[in-house]
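Notebook entry, structure prediction.
Reason for the run: the old model in the group folder had no record of what sequence produced it. Starting over properly, with the input documented here first.
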Amino acid sequence: MFNQYQEEHNGKLLGKDKKLTRDNLKFKREWLLEMKRQNDNKEHQLRNEDAKIWLELADRVDEYGETRMALDMRNEAIGMMTRLPISGQEEYSASQIGEKLGVSPLQIGKWGSILGIKSDRHLSYKTAEGAWRYYPKAVELFQKNQFKIQEDFFD
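New structure, fully documented this time:
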């Protein structure tokens, strides 16, 4: 189904389609979210591959006694790896969830309180800097209530 949609709209501006029904909009949104997820996964894979290459090069450079260059290469690899998810459980910021739902991070914060997500440590936590981080179960709750959240945002 996604492939059919992609073939129909490849190269067209989605916003120019004047025959959009609510179901079509929802489907287009889901398709765009899926494309974003696939792109994010590809970016993650590419960073992993790049980090692996930097580490392999560092090992090779070590063999030639170029310790400073090898250290720089390892630092580059470490920098790439720190941009990868490192916790056992994936976490999301209000900005990431808001982007998925088409609302502001402030709206996510507001609805996190309304839905009781912020008061459940299994759904979210507050960082030392004061930012809220949400676990996948919380994201599911936001998604189940997405139309209420969006209606509230656009009112």
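Summary: DSSP finds seven helices and three strands in the chain.
The old model has been moved to the deprecated folder.
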